[in-house]
Design a protein that fits this description.
The chain is α/β, with parallel strands linked by helices and 393 residues long. The protein is 35% helix and 21% strand. The structure holds zinc ion. Zinc ion (ZN) binds next to loops.
Length: 393
C-alpha cells in the first residue's frame, strides 16, 4: 500500500526535536519522501491520504525481550510447560497482540521446543501477522540451574555444542541464562553460579565467532557481576547491578535491557490474586532494586534498550507503553525511553534499515493520538500501526 501521512508531528527516532506539520510518503514498503506538508508535490487523488493532524508519527517500536509462547500473568512459568499445540497457537495469537500495540520488531529470547524459531519464520514469510521476530531458540543454562525446559550443559564442550545446535536449528541470536543452583541441586564444594566467567567467555566467543549476538539473563547479584564483565551484547534484567558492574558494561558497550514491567506486574498480581506475604514482599524488593539499578545506569550513561519480558515474567503482551512509563519513572527523559524502544533497540538487534524514520528505510511506523515526548503514556493511544508499508493495526 502506498500512502501519505499528511500534516503530522514527526519524531524520527533520533535525538532531534519533534517536527510539526510534516508529511511522510510511503511507497513499496519504504519511506519515499519526508518534508514540510506544504511542499508535497504529489496528486492527492492518486494516493491514500491519512490525516496526521493532532497526531504524532514515530518509528515502529522494538521490544528487545519477549516470550510469545507464554501469556505472562500470575502463573507464567507453568504456562511454559503447557502442551506443544497450546504453546504454538498462543505464540501466534500473542505475536499479533504485540504487533497491534505498535511492536513491529521483537526479540523472542527463549521458548520451549524453539517454538519462537518457527514463529519467526512464519512471520518473515508473511504467513501470520506478527512483528519482525529475532528468535533465540531455547535458553542455554548450566545443568542443575534455571528452568527444566532450558537446553542444559555441564562443561565447555557441551556448551559450544549447545550454541551450535541453536544456530543450526535456525536461531537468530543466542540466549544464555546465568543462575544459582536449583534447590538441592548444588554439589558439594561447587561455586554459587556454575555458569561462571570462564564458561560465559566460551559462550561469548562461540556466538561472536558465528557472528551471532548473545543475550545474557542475570537476575541475582553474582550473575550480574559476571555478566557485566563478559562482553555479552545485552544483559537482561540486571536488577542487582552495582556501580562497578555498570562501569564495566559502559566499557564493554553492553546494553542493559531492564524489563521493569516484570516487577510492576508481579506487584499487581501480588495485590490482586492473594499471593502470600513473603512473595508480595519479594515482588516489592525486586521492583525497588530494579529502579535503583536503572536510575544508576541512566546517570552513568549505560546504553539501555527497551524490553518488557512479556510472557517470561508476570507481564502480559501488548503493554509496551508500560515499560516506557517505568523507564521515565526511573529518571529517563521520555525521548531517551523512546529511543531505547526504537533507534537504540535497532542497534542492539542489528536492524540498520529500521528504528528511525528516514528516506529509504523500511516503513515501520506508529501513529499516535498524542505526543509521547510530552507524555510518554501517549504510547497507549495507537491510531495506526504500519509494518513494511502495510497497515497491520
Ligand atoms: Zn525473559
Amino acid at each position: 500500500m502506498d500512502f501519505l501521512v499528511d500534516e503530522v508531528q514527526l519524531w524520527d527516532g533520533t535525538d532531534s526535536p519533534i517536527q510539526p506539520r510534516r508529511s511522510v510518503e510511503v511507497r513499496d514498503g519504504r519511506i519515499y519522501w519526508i518534508g514540510a506538508a506544504s511542499e508535497w508535490q504529489g496528486n492527492r487523488s492518486n494516493v491514500r491520504v491519512i490525516d496526521g493532524r493532532a497526531r504524532t508519527l514515530i518509528p515502529g517500536l522494538m521490544d528487545c525481550h519477549v516470550h510469545y509462547s507464554s501469556p505472562g500473568g500470575p502463573d507464567w512459568i507453568a504456562r511454559f510447560t503447557d502442551p506443544l499445540p497450546e504453546l504454538t497457537i498462543r505464540a501466534v495469537e500473542l505475536a499479533e497482540t504485540s504487533l497491534r500495540s505498535g511492536v513491529t520488531t521483537a526479540r523472542d529470547v527463549g521458548a520451549p521446543h524453539s517454538v519462537n524459531i518457527r514463529l519467526a519464520q512464519a512471520a518473515h514469510a508473511g504467513e501470520i501477522r506478527a512483528p519482525n521476530i529475532h528468535a533465540a531458540g531455547t535458553w542455554i543454562a548450566h545443568r542443575g540451574t534455571y528452568v527444566a525446559f532450558a537446553r542444559h550443559f555441564g562443561e565447555s564442550g557441551e556448551l559450544r555444542a549447545a550454541i551450535k545446535a541453536e544456530i543450526e536449528a535456525g536461531a537468530d541470536l543466542i540466549k544464555v541464562a546465568l543462575a544459582p543452583w536449583n534447590e538441592n541441586a548444588r554439589p558439594e564444594n561447587s561455586p554459587e553460579i556454575p555458569f561462571d566467567d570462564k564458561l560465559l567467555a566460551v559462550a561469548v566467543e562461540e556466538a561472536h565467532r558465528a557472528k551471532f549476538k548473545i543475550a545474557c539473563h542475570a537476575n541475582d547479584p553474582a550473575s550480574c557481576h559476571i555478566a557485566a564483565r563478559a562482553g555479552v551484547d545485552s544483559l537482561e534484567h540486571g536488577m542487582f547491578l552495582e556501580p562497578a558492574d555498570l562501569q564495566a558494561m559502559t566499557n564493554n558497550g553492553t546494553y542493559l535491557v531492564p524489563t521493569m514491567s516484570v516487577w510492576d506486574a508481579m506487584l499487581h498480581y501480588a495485590r490482586t490474586v492473594g499471593w502470600p506475604e513473603n512473595r508480595k514482599k519479594r515482588a516489592g524488593d525486586l521492583r525497588d532494586s530494579s529502579r535503583k539499578a536503572v536510575s544508576r545506569a541512566i546517570t552513568m550513561g549505560v546504553r539501555i534498550a527497551l524490553g518488557t519480558d512479556a510472557g517470561g515474567g508476570a507481564a502480559r503482551h501488548g503493554r509496551i507503553a508500560r515499560e516506557a512509563e517505568l523507564m521515565v519513572e526511573s529518571g529517563m527523559d521520555p525521548r531517551d525511553a523512546l529511543m531505547a524502544g526504537t533507534s537504540i533497540a535497532a542497534k542492539l538487534i542489528g536492524e540498520p534499515d529500521r528504528g528511525t524514520i528516514e528516506k529509504g528505510k523500511i516503513a515501520d511506523l506508529v501513529l499516535l493520538d498524542g505526543n509521547p515526548l510530552e507524555n510518554i503514556s501517549s504510547l497507549r493511544l495507537i491510531a495506526a500501526v504500519f509494518q513494511g508499508g502495510r497497515r497491520v493495526g
